[in-house]
Every structure is written in C-alpha cells, then in structure tokens.
Design goal:
By secondary structure, the chain is mainly alpha-helical. The chain has nine helices and two strands, in the order H-H-H-H-H-E-E-H-H-H-H. The protein has a two-stranded antiparallel sheet.
C-alpha cells in the first residue's frame, strides 16, 4: 500500500472527532501534504517524504506504546485516536514550506560540478515548529491538552528551546516523550543517516 493510501486508511480508521474530515479534505485537496518532502536535505528529502515520515512515526509510536514495559512500568496507555492524531499530524507545520529547485554538487569521481534536484525551505507562516502544527490542527478540530503538548514538543531536546523547559514538558506530558522518541526513531533510523540531523 502506498503511503498516501496508508495515511488515509489509518486516519479514517482511528480519527473521528468533529472537524477531522474537514482537516483530511484540506490535506488531500488544498495542501501539498502528500507531495511535500519531510526535510530539505536529510530524512524524507523527496516528494512524498512528509507523508512517508508521518506514517513511519505512527508505526514507531504504536510499537513503542505496545511494549509491555512502557504500559506496565510507566503506565502509558493511550487510545488509538490520540496516537494517530499526534503521529500523523505532528509535522503539519511543513505544509507549503518547501520549494523544489537545484543545487550544484561536485562529482568526486570526475571533479565536475553537476546540478542536482533539491528542496528549499521557505516558511510563509513562521509560527514555530510544533506550535505551528498545533495551530493548523486547531483550525479544524480540538486537541486534548496532552495531544497539543505532544505535538508542540515532538522535537524533544533536538529543538532550540531551553532544555529545562523541554524536560518539564516531557516529564509532565508522557505522550510528548513517546512522540519525540518515535519521531527520532523514524527520522534517524528508518529514513536518514544517524547524526545528520532532521530539519
């Protein structure tokens, strides 16, 4: 199953709150969500990478929360609607932000410069990262406080915020920690090269 169809299937299976169909219509028909990359040069830096990444994060979060130790020791147990919302929609902030172009790269074997396809990040609504995703979703449907905090803080300690604030958010909202863990697993191990970053 292609990622677009898988995304839509997961979304429609689990997300049923008021406004969810309007949000899905926006993603399908009024945005570049299904054709946008997940980043300009790292994980998912190809057309459709954002959708692929979102599905990967869902799978990683679902697996993380299903681990017996996570449920028994840490007491993390969330309904699948919350799991689907935070994982599938955490990076809506990237919709409409990437422009296709080219860049010059030197071919190490020949020593010649070549134009290669790339994406450029141009944010026309610079509202932040996680907070922008929360803002976009909230225009269509209500989020619980924990869902909003999970999406807001999904970058964990790889963002630019004060580490003390990040730590407080992850401690107070365990779903934020779980989503940040799933996002890193998808970004660095399923989609990218460890250590190269995930912007």
């Amino acid at each position: 199953m292609a990622s677009r169809e898988e995304f839509i299937d997961i979304y429609r299976t689990y997300i049923h709150r008021e406004g969810s169909e309007e949000l899905l219509d926006y993603l399908m028909n009024k945005s570049d969500f299904f054709t946008a990359p997940a980043s300009a040069r790292f994980h998912g830096s190809y057309a459709g990478g954002l959708c692929d990444h979102s599905v990967n994060v869902f799978r990683c979060l679902e697996d993380f929360l299903a681990r017996p130790r996570v449920k028994q020791v840490y007491g993390l147990d969330y309904d699948m609607e919350s799991v689907a919302i935070v994982s599938l929609l955490h990076d809506l902030c990237k919709v409409g932000c990437y422009r296709a172009g080219t860049r010059n790269v030197k071919d190490e074997a020949t020593g010649k410069w070549e134009k290669v396809p790339t994406f450029y990040f141009e944010d026309k609504l610079p509202y932040g990262h996680g907070e922008k995703s929360v803002y976009i979703i909230s225009g269509f449907m209500r989020l619980s406080r924990e869902e909003a905090m999970a999406i807001r803080w999904h970058m964990g300690f790889s963002g630019t915020e004060d580490p003390r604030t990040v730590g407080q958010a992850l401690e107070q909202y365990p779903l934020a920690f779980a989503l940040a863990t799933a996002d890193m697993e998808a970004s660095y191990f399923l989609e990218g090269t460890p250590g190269e970053g995930n912007r």
